[in-house]
Amino acid sequence: MATDVAPVPGHGTPDAALPFPPEEYRRLVGPTDLDAFDNPTGAPVFAHLPPAAYASVLDFGCGCGRIARRMIQQEPRPARYLGLDRHAGMIEWCREHLSPRAPGFEFQHHDAFHERYNAAGAGSGVPFPVAERSVTLVVAWSVFTHLLEADAVHYVRETARVLADDGVALTTWFLFDKRGFPMMQAFQNALYINTVDPTNAVIFDVDWLREQVHAAGLVVTRVVPPAVRGFQWIVELQRAVPGRASQAFPDDVAPLGIVRAPLD
Length: 264
Description:
Elements: E1 5-6, E2 18-19, H1 23-29, E3 56-60, H2 66-73, E4 80-85, H3 88-97, E5 105-109, E6 135-140, H4 149-162, E7 163-176, E8 190-192, E9 202-205, H5 206-215, E10 218-224, E11 233-239
Parallel strand pairs: 3-4, 3-6, 4-5, 6-7, 7-9
Antiparallel strand pairs: 1-2, 7-11, 8-9, 10-11
C-alpha cells in the first residue's frame, strides 16, 4: 500500500494528509502519475460546472479515488459524495484511506459482474443505490468506454433516473459512425477490440448514443471531441426540459496518435 501523503488545501494538519493509491490500483484505472490524483490548488475538479453541481456527487466507476481524492482537496468540497465501483479492493482502500479524512464521502461496492474484477457479482442491470432525482453531478469517467451494449443502455437509464432536474452527467465515450461499416447489422451498435475481455475498450455508434440518450429522457448539452483522434469524447447530459437544446457532435479532427487500452 502507498505511504506517500499530500496535504489537503485548507486542511493543513498532518491528520488531514491524504495518501496516494498504490501503483497497482493506479495502473488499473489508467494514469499512474501522482499528478493525476492531486489537486494542490483546491480548484473545482470540473471548473466549467456551476458550484451547485457539487451538492451531491455520484462517481460511478470511482476506482481507487482518482476523482474523489481531488474533490476532497477541492474548496469547497462536495456536500455529499458517493463513489461506486465493482472492484472491491479499490473500494476498501478508499474506505480506509479517504472516507475517514472527508466527512460526507462514502464508497460502496457496486456488485455488478465482471469476469476478472467481480466474478461473483450479481450480473448486469444493478441499480444505483440512490433515490430518483437526488444527484446533482453524475461522473462516469472511463466507464461507458468499458461496458457492453446492454449494460450501457441500463446505466444511461439509471443516470436519467437519479439525475436532479438541474443536474449534470459528465460521461466519456469511444464513438464511431456506423454508416461507414456497411457489414454491420441493424442490432449491432458497438465495436470490441479484445476477444479475451470485450470490455477492454468498447466503441459505440454515435447515432445509437443519441437514440439512447433521447429514449432515457436526457439531452446532450455539451460535447468535447477527443484530443487524439478516435479517443475519448466528453459528453455531458441533462434532463430534457423545455428550452434545453441538444448539442451536435462536431467532427473528430484531432491529430492521429496512440493511447492504448491496458492489457491487464
